[in-house]
Amino acid sequence: MTTLICNCNQTMPLNPKVLGEALDEDLTLHTTLCRRDAPAFQRAARSNEDLVVACTQESRLFTELSEQTEGAVSLDVRPIKFVNIRETGGWGREAKDATPKMAALLAAARLPDAEPVPTVTYKSAGRLLIIGALQDAERVADLVSDTLEVSLMSTGGSGMQTRRYPVMAGDIGEVRGWLGAFTVDWTTNNPIDLDLCTRCNACVAVCPEGAIGLDYQIDMDKCKSHRACVKACEAVGAINFQRDAQEHSEKFDMVLDLRAVPAFTQHAHPQGYFHLAAGIDNAAGMATVLKLRELVGEFEKPKFFTYKQKLCAHGRNETVGCNACVEVCSALAISSEIKRNQIVVNPNLCVGCGACTTVCPTGALSYAYPRASEQGVKLRTLLATYAKAGGQNAALLLHSQEAGAALVNELGRVASMDKAYRGVPARVIPMPLWHTASIGLDVWLSAFAYGASQVWVLMTGEEAPQYREAVREQMAVAQALVLGLGYSGHHFRLIEANDVQALDAALVEAPAQTVKRRATFAIQAEKRATVELAIDHLLQDSAAQRPAMEAIALPGASLLGTINVNKDTCTLCLSCVSACPASALQDNTERPQLRFIEKNCVQCGLCASTCPEDAITLQPRLLIGEQRKQLSVLNEAQPYHCIRCAKPFGTLKGIEVMLGKLSGHAMFQGEALERLKMCGDCRVVDLYSNPGETRITDL
Q1: Are 53 and 33 spatial neighbours (Cβ–Cβ below 8 Å)?
Q2: Is the pLDDT of residue 696 over 60?
Q3: Fewer Cβ neighbours under 10 Å: the N or C end of the chain?
Q4: How far apart are CA 67 and CA 266, in angstroms?
């Protein structure tokens, strides 16, 4: 491994000795690696060793220099990894104390890339539909028609005389699909057929009410039925007031929507759909036009999730329990398939936010790229290297790799020039994520167990509102848990900032109490397994300091807890046992008992919604001690014995409730009611042996 560091023309303090000791590598300090010291980079580029360059500003220059260096290893064989230690720590008020953080960031950059995962493929032939006023739609069409096959869906306005693009009009119905597979439905009910119309303007000229505009559609609210337009268009035959409404449906690869209200109401629109209510006369509009021109061909993205139905607590016996993932998804990519007791995720609509994996209590949905285990390795590397270099009270700042990273970098640049800004504090370690909602309770608790004093999630306003609420709820659970274990301070926090001033102020917070002994366990593929490992470590670490208590109360969004059973109403029908997806509820083959393992409970609520007596309620909590892993009896009852053979076949309360409900029914009188007191075998025997019973042969 070769690591190249540069103090960027002496604008930040670097200690190559301390950094080298933390990384187990001899480091040379450079001053202008991208200029005068470039030969050092070229020598490293010729080496077969992995190469890390502590500079992101000149990454393009270094890449080109490597390609032009004779004897350099191909970037396809050995890509160069670039890491930012300047804006994230070297430029700021606490830069001289940021060496441990820099060492941590460099160590994380040396890790291998995430393992490949299955991909989702999109194929686009360049068929673009532009929805909007004709004059606006035609302007956009002129900018992209050389590369795309453009069609226009008119919502009014004035079009050009030249028929350059197919134009449709009508009442737009549903727009559905994704890049390469959009379907648009609309209904035509206007007297003018745009396919037949020659745009001669004869109808426009003769209409006494001015009901026909240059969109060549008749405003029926203005039309007074003079029918002068019909006479003027007689030779062409494009106008017919007796034409029936027709429904249409067409396929497109992309949709550009210029209307004020978008066709999709969800926060995350499908890939290939663009909404520009403000038009193209701004930076966002022109960026969208350039993006459209590039969307021809075959495209791939990672399949960001994995789903294990056997772990899913969504439903049992067509009864919905946990619905958290369906409710949180901002792309409407997750739907319920309750008849199969599962959820369905559309990978083409999934945008990879990972919020579903954060709220999933069982780990049935897990984030695949990168995997939780790979994130765990990165976290352990960051925090272990930080501690090795002498750092204390690390605060982990999780942010998005686009807007979040841009804001963090902007803060560093501002702090280097304006001393009124602190910049990123020395103890705050930024960690970019594909999306800030993709990491949840299991990883946060693991990071705390690894030695982080605090875990902060930065959201910049690009996230869906339900993501912020979901992260806030899960953080409340994590905070309640560690406070209950005796760790003082504010450990988990959601930071909402969209400018450097707000971010600079938010990063100033006193450290919270951390663990005495840093954990070494690896984050597992199974979410519940990771949570249990973290809890076990924290229980051991806090044993001497936590207050004496049996359980820690947790907020309602918790995936940990117990259930309470009303013994007065419970009949031990055990329908809850068959509904439980986590085997937290169990029966006893020897006697009528409802047993429970609290460690397995995911608080999905299926048992409560299934119980016919409404005898079950959920109680979020963390039970202290080994008893949370052991079977406990929630309810038991005396068995009911068959009145004929004395074999136990139910519970006393259950049979009594049944007899009470059916005693007034006409079908269960006399001997029929007594037969309910028999086991299944004796009931059949009694039916065939009783001479008073009516048989089919008697009819």
Answers
A1: yes
A2: no
A3: C
A4: 44
